[in-house]
């Protein structure tokens, strides 16, 4: 496994891979790797010749009073896990390598926003789009791998790839969960012991909401209210949002829609957790 820290070196590596006519699988991360990230690596390893994983805590996607400085980092452990799971190259740039000067071009998105995380984190997805556009251009991968836990991000990345004609196939990998159902997340380490015991209620609430819908309820408001009630009874966190939408368009459900998402976010004292389920109706 080779560690790359400069864009110049990355370009040289990509040129060699392309000259050898090998396929590239790309796994973009912010580090502090867990089983969810490693599932993406394994999927990439299974269908591509070279697996490139990036580790970059992107400051552009953190707003005021968010947890950029507190975001967990452990480069040594990340590299050990990446090596163990067959990553070929790890790209770990510093902030001034990715953004050497003030940004003169900003990325904006006009669809699949105004809901879910975008409503409470204005500017977040502009930062995500900016860094992914740079990374997609640099890595020139054939496939890009994202976990379903960040469903709105996947929907917007799908839009980015389609609208800007990136020659990349998007791979959506199922959410990896703890035995009690809690979605794997780097932020889970910031939960207190009591909050960690409560946290499985997020997935339980989603399953409950899905069952309410299967049983015949079609009012999004009523389903969202029921899920919120479930969470408020079982956690000490503050419910940020609960939404039922079409997927991947993230719009109010219509009779012609076949795939939907129930998504939620709960703010605990030092960790904001998100989760979702996507299913056909």
| Total tally of structural domains | 2
Question: How many separate helices?
Answer: 10
* Backbone CA Rg: 19 Å
CATH topology of the largest domain: Rossmann fold
Count all strands and give the number. 9
Poorly predicted runs are none
Largest sheet data: 6 strands, parallel
Approximately how much helix is present in the residues? 25-40%
- Enumerate the strands of the largest sheet in spatial order, edge to edge or round the barrel: 1-4-3-2-5-6
Order of helices and strands: EHEHEHEHHHEHEHHHEEE
Short description:
Helix content is 39%, strand content 20%. With 281 residues, it is of the alpha/beta class.
Keywords:
281 residues, alpha/beta, Rossmann fold, Pantoate--beta-alanine Ligase, Chain: A,domain 2, six-stranded parallel β-sheet, three-stranded antiparallel β-sheet, 9 strands, 39% helix, globular
